[in-house]
Amino acid sequence: MSLDYYTVLRSSRTSSFEEIKRNYKELIKRYHPDKQVVSSDEQFKLIDAAWKTLRDEELRRKYDAVLMEKELEEQYLVCGNSYAINKNFVGNECIIECEECSYVIVVRA
């Protein structure tokens, strides 16, 4: 998976708001353009964009959903088949088995 906002802020999806905020403050001090001899505008902008998304509860929830969707798209079966889940199971934790091979995935919502 490519670089994501959690990685930018040296956090994870399970990090608390306070932990993300603390990391943001440390990074913003380090990469602020006024503090740099060599320009780090791009890094500063990336840190700021990550913070603006992850500090807002609704934006963070949407961002997490996009990450989860990308992760699920990256999961593939060796046999070439695909996983399917009934919409009634969305929101619950469940194990989905491939009908063709022995692969299984755990879906947590």
Automatic annotation (TrEMBL):
Q: Which GO terms describe its molecular function?
A: ATPase activator activity; ferrous iron binding
InterPro entries (alphabetical): DnaJ_domain (IPR001623), J_dom_sf (IPR036869)
Native organism = Aquatica leii
What PANTHER family does the database record attribute to this sequence? DNAJ HOMOLOG SUBFAMILY C MEMBER 24
What are the alphabetically sorted keywords of the record?
Zinc
This protein's name: J domain-containing protein
Q: Organism's domain of life? A: Eukaryota
User: What CDD domains does the annotation carry?
Assistant: DnaJ
The record's section on Pfam families has: DnaJ
Enumerate the spans annotated as J domain: 4-67
